[in-house]
Specification:
The chain contains eight helices and 37 strands. The longest helix has 29 residues, at about 1-30. The protein is mainly beta and about 700 residues long. It holds the Pfam family DUF7043.
C-alpha cells in the first residue's frame, strides 16, 4: 500500500513537472521582444573602462557575452523572454552559461528605440523569482547599444540647423586658443547635408579625435537623436568607423553650449548637468556669426591690411578684395516663371512645391534662394549661383545646369557646393562648373556608389503644349498595339501611332481584377537617355477639358525581349532613377515588360466610356496665363482616363463585350477608310470590265 502511494506521489510530481514545462514553454513561445529591433544584427556596447558587451537579440531570447575589461575572462549568458509588460518592458530569465550550474535569476528590462541602429536599455536588479514588481525600479543605462550595421546605415536629418564658430575645451583647457580663425560647425544648411566641421588648424583637433582619423574638414552624419530633460542627444557618425555622442543644451535654434562624448556614452549628468559617467569629453561653446555677402571679413583682425599679404587674405574678402563681379547676371526669359514639382512627396501629401525663378533669383524648395552670379560658364546652359543663408551658415557657390526640354518642361541640376571663403571669384568661376562637380557619392544599400547628380524635371502646368512622343520603332504601334505585363499583377496594351497621332499614346489593361479600361497620355516632352532609351513626360487629361490630372515620366528602354517600360513621377525623370530601378534599389511607380510572344492579340479600342470624377491639380499659383491644348481628332474612337491609382488605375465597367465592341467599331469606320474602299471597288469594276 505504501509502495502504491509512493508510486502515485511520483506520478503526480512527474505530471506536475510536465505541466510546468508545458506552461513555461507556452509562455516563452508567446513572449517576443519588440519588432523594431533588428534581430539579424549584432549589438555591442563598450564603456570607457574597456568593458564590452556583445549581444544577439532574437525574438524570444538574448544571447550575450560580457567582458569586464580587456584581457579578462568573459561571461556568457542567456536571457529568455518570460512575460511582456507595458511600454516595451519584459520579465526575463537570466542564465549564466560560462560557469558551472547556477540557478536562474530574473530581472526586468526595457528597450528604448533611438533609431534602427541605436538602442538604450533600462534594467532592474536581479532576483531569484519572477515578479511584476521587478519593473517598478528600472534604471537607464547611459551607454547605448549599437548595431554593427551603423557604419553603412542610412543617416537621419540632424536636429539642428545653422552655422557656429566654436571654442573647444578639454579638462578646462581651451584648444588652439592662440589661433585667429575659430573652428566652425555647420549643420543642415541645406536639407540632408548632415554636419560639417572645419577645425581650421590641426591643433584644434583633440588627440582622441585624431586617433579616430578625424580630418581638418570632417563630414559627420547624424544616426539617432532624442530628448532627455533639457538636452538634445545626437549620435554622430564621422566618415570613420567610430561613433560619438553630442549633448546639446536647448534651445536648438540658438545653441550656446554642448558636450561631445568621445566614449560611447550619452550622459545627462548630475543635477547641474556635469557629466558623471565619463571624463573623456569636450566642452564646446557656440557663437553664431552671420555672413550675407561674399564681400565680408571672416574675423575681426582682417581690418589690418597687412593680412592681405599673408595666407589669411582668403578670409579677409572685404579688406583685401576683389570680391564682386562686374557682370550683370540675369536668368533668361524662358526660365522666368513658376515651375511645379510633381514628385513622390506631392503624390503622398497632395501639397504642391514650386521652383520660382525671377530675373536675378531662383528659389528651390527645401534648399533655399540662389542669386545669379555668372552666366554661360563653360557651356551656354550653365550658370554659377550664390546661396546665402539666414541661419549662420556661410555662403556657398554652385553651378546650375538648365535643360530646355520643351515649351512646357524644364530640367535643372545643381552641382556640388564650394564653400565661402576658400576661393576667390575667379577660381570659383573656373572650378564650380567642372564635370566632376556634377558627380556625387550615394549610399545604396550597404555600399557607396558614385553617380551623376540627377536632374529634377519641372513643369509649367499652366502652359501645356503637346509634343511628338518620338518613341523608338521597338515601342511603336505594330497594328495591334504593344502587349506588356506588369509582374504578376495584370497585362496591358500600349497603342501609339507615330504618323497619325504622334503626340499621345494610350494604355488598356487586360486580365486585371477590374474591368477593361483605357488611359490616355499626352506627351509634353521627349528626350533620349541613350540609343536604346527614350524618356517621355506626359500629362493625363480628361477629354473635352483643358486641365491635366497627373504628370508622369515614362521611360522606354531596351530592345527585343529586353524591352521594358518604367514609370516614375515626373520630377524623377532622369538616368539615375532608371539605373537604380533596374538594379532593384529603387521602386518605381510601375515597371512593365514588353512580351515578345504575347499570349493573345491586343484588343481593339472601345469607342466610349463614362467620364470619371477626378480631382484637378491646383494651378492657381502659376504666373503664366494658361493656354488650351488643341487636341487632334482621334479617328473614330475616344478614350477616358482615371489616374487615382497610378498609370493603370481601374476604370468603370465596360458596358459592351468584345463582340459588341468589334461590331460597333465596324459600323463606325472613319470617312477616309470608307472613301478608300469605294475607290477600290470602282477600280476593280473598271479592271473587270476591261
Amino acid at each position: 500500500m505504501a509502495i502504491r502511494m509512493q508510486t502515485n506521489s511520483f506520478a503526480a510530481i512527474a505530471i506536475q513537472l510536465m505541466m510546468n514545462v508545458w506552461l513555461i514553454s507556452s509562455v516563452l513561445s508567446n513572449c517576443q521582444f519588440p519588432d523594431f529591433i533588428n534581430h539579424q544584427d549584432v549589438w555591442t556596447r563598450k564603456n570607457g573602462e574597456g568593458a564590452t558587451l556583445t549581444a544577439y537579440i532574437k525574438p524570444h531570447m538574448i544571447t550575450a557575452k560580457y567582458c569586464p575589461y580587456v584581457g579578462s575572462a568573459c561571461q556568457h549568458y542567456v536571457q529568455h523572454c518570460v512575460e511582456k509588460r507595458d511600454d516595451n518592458q519584459y520579465i526575463v530569465k537570466h542564465e549564466i552559461r560560462s560557469t558551472g550550474f547556477s540557478p536562474p535569476r530574473y530581472l526586468c528590462i526595457q528597450f528604448i528605440f533611438r533609431s534602427p541602429t541605436v538602442l538604450q536599455m533600462k534594467e532592474s536588479e536581479k532576483f531569484d523569482k519572477p515578479s511584476a514588481e521587478l519593473c517598478n525600479n528600472i534604471v537607464l543605462n547611459n551607454w547605448p547599444l549599437f548595431s554593427t550595421s551603423i557604419g553603412t546605415a542610412q543617416a537621419i536629418a540632424c536636429p539642428f540647423s545653422g552655422g557656429y564658430n566654436m571654442r573647444i575645451s578639454s579638462n578646462g583647457h581651451e584648444l588652439c586658443s592662440n589661433k585667429m580663425l575659430s573652428p566652425r560647425i555647420e549643420s543642415e544648411c541645406e536639407a540632408g547635408d548632415g554636419i560639417s566641421v572645419d577645425f581650421k588648424h590641426k591643433e584644434c583637433i583633440h588627440e582622441n579625435l585624431k586617433s579616430m582619423r578625424m580630418s581638418l574638414r570632417q563630414h559627420i552624419d547624424c544616426m539617432a537623436t532624442w530628448t532627455d530633460r533639457n538636452y538634445q542627444f545626437v549620435i554622430l557618425r564621422p566618415d570613420s568607423d567610430h561613433a560619438l555622442c553630442l549633448r546639446i543644451k536647448k534651445p536648438l535654434d540658438n545653441i550656446r553650449h554642448a558636450y561631445l562624448f568621445m566614449d560611447l556614452v550619452c550622459d545627462p549628468g548630475n543635477s547641474v548637468g556635469q557629466p558623471e559617467d565619463s571624463q573623456n569629453f569636450l566642452s564646446i561653446e557656440f557663437e553664431r556669426k552671420y555672413i550675407h555677402s561674399v564681400c565680408e571679413n571672416e574675423f575681426e583682425g582682417c581690418s589690418d591690411e597687412r593680412f592681405c599679404d599673408t595666407d589669411m587674405r582668403a578670409h579677409c574678402k572685404l579688406t583685401c578684395g576683389p570680391c564682386r563681379s562686374d557682370d550683370i547676371c540675369a536668368f533668361p526669359e524662358y526660365l522666368r516663371r513658376v515651375w511645379s514639382i510633381y514628385d513622390r512627396k506631392y503624390a503622398q501629401t497632395n501639397k504642391m512645391r514650386y521652383v520660382n525663378i525671377t530675373n536675378y533669383e531662383i528659389d528651390f524648395p527645401d534648399v533655399g534662394k540662389f542669386q545669379c552670379l555668372f552666366n554661360n560658364v563653360t557651356a551656354k546652359h550653365r550658370s554659377i549661383l550664390l546661396h546665402t543663408f539666414d541661419n549662420g551658415c556661410y555662403p556657398k557657390f554652385t553651378c546650375m545646369e538648365t535643360y530646355y526640354s520643351s515649351d512646357t518642361v524644364r530640367q535643372f541640376r545643381l552641382g556640388r557646393r564650394i564653400n565661402w571663403p576658400v576661393y576667390d571669384l575667379s577660381r570659383v568661376k573656373s572650378q564650380a562648373c567642372k564635370s566632376i562637380m556634377f558627380k556625387k557619392d550615394y549610399q545604396i544599400g550597404d555600399s557607396s556608389e558614385k553617380f551623376k547628380i540627377p536632374k529634377i524635371t519641372v513643369i509649367d502646368a499652366s502652359y501645356t503644349k503637346s509634343q511628338n512622343c518620338k518613341l523608338d520603332y521597338e515601342f511603336r504601334n505594330h497594328l495591334n498595339g504593344l502587349y506588356f505585363r506588369e509582374g504578376d499583377k495584370c497585362d496591358g496594351c500600349l497603342y501609339y501611332d507615330s504618323i497619325i497621332n504622334p503626340d499621345y499614346f494610350e494604355v488598356r489593361t487586360i486580365n486585371c481584377p477590374s474591368s477593361l479600361n483605357y488611359l490616355e497620355y499626352i506627351c509634353m516632352a521627349s528626350f533620349k537617355f541613350d540609343n536604346e532609351t527614350t524618356a517621355v513626360v506626359t500629362g493625363t487629361r480628361i477629354r473635352r477639358q483643358n486641365t491635366y490630372r497627373q504628370f508622369l515620366c515614362w521611360v522606354f528602354t531596351g530592345t527585343g525581349e529586353k524591352r521594358k517600360v518604367v514609370v516614375f513621377d515626373a520630377a524623377d525623370c532622369n538616368e539615375v532613377q532608371l539605373q537604380l530601378s533596374l538594379a532593384g534599389d529603387v521602386v518605381p511607380k510601375s515597371m512593365f515588360e514588353v512580351m515578345e510572344k504575347p499570349p493573345k492579340l491586343c484588343p481593339r479600342p472601345i469607342d466610349d466610356e463614362p467620364q470619371p470624377d477626378i480631382p484637378i491639380i491646383p494651378l492657381d499659383t502659376s504666373s503664366v496665363t494658361a493656354t488650351p491644348v488643341k487636341k487632334k481628332p482621334l479617328n473614330g474612337y475616344k478614350l477616358t482616363t482615371d489616374v487615382r491609382k497610378g498609370p493603370l488605375a481601374p476604370n468603370k465597367p465596360v458596358k459592351t463585350d468584345r463582340q459588341n465592341a468589334d461590331s460597333s467599331a465596324s459600323l463606325s469606320l472613319p470617312q477616309s477608310l470608307l472613301h478608300t474602299i469605294f475607290c477600290l471597288c470602282v477600280l476593280l469594276r473598271t479592271l473587270c470590265t476591261t
